[in-house]
Amino acid sequence: MMMMVSACLPGHENLAVRQAIARWSSLQAAVAWSGISVRTLKRFPTERHMVEAKLMTEEEYDMYMNLDAPHGKWFVPIMWIVNIIKKQYALKKIDTIQMDMLLKQVYSYRDGFAMLFVYDWVKIPLVYTQVVAIATYGYFFICLIGRQPKLDQKSMETEITILFPIFTTFQMLFYLGWLKVGQFLMNPFGEDDDDFGQFNARIWKLMIFLEM
């Protein structure tokens, strides 16, 4: 999105506009991720922390807090970006085609967070996870008993007996691996080492945006 903004609003005279859009896009990410990611929520437990992080000014903070939105305010920074793009069009700094391209990028950015909220709202039932885990471990417990090789004198003379269960071992590796992956995907934005961390990446992106 910021690459499109830089292409449509170049030059030093549009620097303040580009910086405002970059800051609001980062604010949008911080507000949205605070409702999904535990790490981001601990970094920004309240809106005042976003002001201290220079993602929001005092005036914007007052506007944000005075807004009555019982179902969440994560879309507010996007509204500010749309308004400033419309203002640039009214000032004849961009034409209709450029405004259309910028708004498409903004709406695509917003739709990505909306989809994350949809995935976050639909929880996997706890009974389903328990049934899957019990079925997987129970299957291999039965395999441990049922797939033991038959060791008698006749079978040892006429058959090639494989004492190590090769195919059962491969099954166990694949099935348990898929089970662990599914358990981690249930909460990809938690606090485990394998979970996604968003704060450092967001700070790096903001620094890049402000230099555009």
From TrEMBL:
Pfam family, one: Bestrophin
GO MF term list: chloride channel activity
Transmembrane regions: 126-146, 158-178
Keywords: Cell membrane, Chloride, Chloride channel, Ion channel, Ion transport, Membrane, Transmembrane, Transmembrane helix, Transport
KW Transmembrane helix (keyword) present: yes
GO cellular component: chloride channel complex; plasma membrane
Location in the cell: Cell membrane; Membrane
This protein's record includes keyword Ribosomal protein: no
Membrane topology: Multi-pass membrane protein
Function comment: Forms chloride channels.
Family from the record: Belongs to the anion channel-forming bestrophin (TC 1.A.46) family. Calcium-sensitive chloride channel subfamily.
Name by which UniProt lists this protein: Bestrophin homolog
Organism per entry: Ancylostoma caninum
Lineage: Eukaryota, Metazoa, Ecdysozoa, Nematoda, Chromadorea
